[in-house]
Write a structure and sequence with these properties.
Oligomer: single chain
Number of helices: 5
Largest sheet: none
Strand content: under 5%
Keywords: Membrane, Transmembrane, Transmembrane helix
Radius of gyration: 21 Å
Number of domains: 1
Number of strands: 0
Structural class: mainly alpha
Length: 177
């Protein structure tokens, strides 16, 4: 039973956390379309692509609950729930989940809303002139927010990397790993 639980835990980790880290890392580049050297065609860096990346993060975050569930079941079965490496891993997992739920997903939603607002610039009359005048300031704010989101996502990814190392190395383990 332990091997089955461990296999399910590792599989859930790969299938859920992997897509979140990739999609969340890509999101900031796609939410703020930039003409120029990065993407000469300008076709792929669209708000629609950013919306898809956000949806991937949101759906896999919900499914990702399976990772700690299987992890705790495996730890209980192995009798290691009190080991320091597992406790630290649980704390880091909780911090990573909090970052995802409190900072990354809401940050993506805000940037998508700003992106939709920027795309709506145009129209007629004084409202269009005001929107056009505010466009550079909004674009700068969006790039700044995207940069902050990229940094938070980097911390999220780093936390998962540390958790993976702790799971493999298991400091203090007597299993010889």
């Amino acid at each position: 039973m332990t091997k089955l639980l461990l296999s399910l835990h590792v599989l859930a980790s790969i299938v859920t956390i992997g897509p979140i880290t990739v999609a969340a890392s890509m999101f900031p580049r796609f939410v703020t379309p930039q003409a120029g050297a990065d993407d000469p065609s300008g076709k792929e860096r669209t708000p629609a692509t950013a919306a898809l990346l956000h949806r991937i993060c949101r759906v896999y975050a919900a499914v990702g609950v399976a990772v700690p569930v299987f992890g705790l079941a495996t730890g209980a079965r192995m009798g290691v729930l009190g080991d320091s490496w597992l406790i630290v891993s649980l704390i880091l997992t909780t911090v990573a989940a909090a970052l995802l739920l409190i900072a990354i997903l809401p940050g993506q939603e805000r940037l998508l809303a700003q992106s939709a607002g920027t795309a709506a610039y145009g129209g007629e009359g004084a409202a269009a002139e005001t929107a056009t005048a505010n466009a550079p300031r909004t674009a700068t704010a969006s790039r700044s927010a995207a940069a902050r989101l990229a940094m938070i996502t980097g911390v999220f990814n780093l936390l998962w990397a540390v958790v993976v190392v702790l799971m493999i190395v298991r400091p203090g383990s007597t299993t010889g790993a």
